[in-house]
C-alpha cells in the first residue's frame, strides 16, 4: 500500500518528535509546535498516538513540560495497526540515510517487534512486508558530517562555525551560529540557527555547507527570539 505525501510527512514528523523527546530535556508543547512547524493541537494528537503504541511520554499540564521517560518501555495492550504505522514511520523515514540513525531505528524496530505477542508480531510483520516503502535517499558524506556536527551542537548547546557556499556565484563565507533545530523536508536537510553575521535566525541548506565546526562557547536557546513566520526567514 503506497504512502501518500501527507502520510509520509506525518510519519517523518512522528520520528522527529521522538528524537526531540529523547534528548532528555523537558520541552513545552509550544516549542515542539515551533520546531516541527505544526499546531499545538497536532502535537497533542501525535503525543497521544505515540503513547498508544507504548512510548512512556509524560506531559505535565500545569507547566506544559513534555519528556520521554528513560525506562525501557513495554507494549502490554496495543493496537497492531498503530504499531505498524510507527514502524513504517521509522523504517521509511529519510532520517535513515544517516548511518547512526539507521542502526538506531533497526534496533528499535527489532525491540518493538520482540515485545509483541506472537500473533500480533506476525500481523505487524505481514503489514510491513506488504508495504511499499521508498528507500531513503543517500546523503553525501560531507552533508552527513555537517548534520552529525549540528546535532552535537544542538544537544550540547555549543555554538558552531558554519562555512557556507552560496549559489549561483559559489561565494564562500562563514558565520558564528547558535543552531536551534534541524528540518528534513522534501528529502532536503536545513538547519535554523541564529547567525552573528546577520543578527537574526536564518535557515541554511545543509547542501550549501562546506563544513561545520562545533566550538566550546555555550549559548542559551531560550534567549534567542524565534521568528513567528518561518516563510520570511532568510535562507542560504
Could you describe the 3D structure shown?
A five-stranded antiparallel sheet has the order 7-6-5-4-8, with helices on one face. Strands 1-3-2 form a three-stranded antiparallel sheet. It has two domains: 5-129, Orthogonal Bundle (Arc Repressor Mutant, subunit A), CATH 1.10.10; 141-232, SH3 type barrels. It is an alpha+beta fold and 236 residues long. The protein contains seven helices and eight strands. α1 crosses α4 and α4 runs antiparallel to α5.
Topology:
Layout: H1 5-21, E1 27-28, H2 29-36, H3 40-52, E2 57-60, E3 65-68, H4 80-92, H5 99-114, H6 118-129, H7 141-156, E4 158-166, E5 171-185, E6 188-195, E7 200-205, E8 209-218
**What is the CATH C-level name of the largest domain?**
Mainly Alpha
| Largest β sheet strand count, sense and barrel closure | 5 strands, antiparallel
Low-confidence sequence ranges: 72-77
The tally of domains stands at 2
What's the CATH superfamily of the largest domain, by name? Winged helix-like DNA-binding domain superfamily/Winged helix DNA-binding domain
What is the tally of helical segments? 7
* Euclidean distance between termini CA atoms: 37 Å
Strand order of the largest sheet: 7-6-5-4-8
Strand content: 15-25%
What would CATH call the architecture of the largest domain? Answer: Orthogonal Bundle
Count of β-strands:
8
Short description:
By secondary structure, the protein is α+β, with helices and mostly antiparallel strands. It has helices at residues 5-21, 29-36, 40-52, 80-92, 99-114, 118-129, 141-156, and strands spanning 27-28, 57-60, 65-68, 158-166, 171-185, 188-195, 200-205, 209-218.
Amino acid at each position: 500500500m503506497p504512502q501518500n505525501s501527507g502520510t509520509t510527512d506525518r510519519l517523518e514528523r512522528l520520528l522527529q518528535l521522538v528524537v526531540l523527546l529523547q534528548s532528555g530535556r523537558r520541552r513545552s508543547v509550544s516549542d515542539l509546535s515551533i520546531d516541527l512547524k505544526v499546531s499545538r493541537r497536532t502535537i497533542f494528537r501525535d503525543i497521544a498516538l505515540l503513547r498508544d503504541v507504548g512510548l512512556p511520554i509524560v506531559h505535565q499540564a500545569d507547566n506544559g513540560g513534555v519528556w520521554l521517560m528513560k525506562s525501557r518501555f513495554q507494549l502490554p495492550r496495543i493496537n497492531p495497526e498503530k504499531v505498524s504505522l510507527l514502524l513504517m514511520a521509522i523504517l521509511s523515514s529519510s532520517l535513515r540515510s544517516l548511518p547512526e540513525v539507521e542502526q538506531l531505528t533497526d534496533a528499535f524496530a527489532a525491540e518493538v517487534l520482540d515485545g509483541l505477542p506472537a500473533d500480533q508480531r506476525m500481523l505487524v510483520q505481514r503489514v510491513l512486508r506488504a508495504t511499499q516503502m521508498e528507500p531513503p535517499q543517500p546523503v553525501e558524506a560531507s552533508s552527513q558530517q555537517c548534520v552529525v556536527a549540528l546535532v552535537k551542537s544542538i544537544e550540547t548547546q555549543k555554538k558552531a562555525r558554519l562555512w557556507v557556499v552560496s549559489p549561483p556565484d559559489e561565494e564562500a563565507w562563514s558565520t558564528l551560529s547558535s543552531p536551534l533545530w534541524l528540518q528534513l523536508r522534501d528529502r532536503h536537510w536545513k538547519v535554523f540557527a541564529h547567525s552573528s553575521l546577520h543578527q537574526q535566525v536564518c535557515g541554511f541548506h545543509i547542501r550549501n555547507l562546506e563544513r561545520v565546526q562545533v566550538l566550546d562557547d555555550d549559548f542559551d536557546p531560550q534567549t534567542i527570539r524565534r521568528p513567528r513566520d518561518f516563510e520570511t526567514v532568510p535562507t542560504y
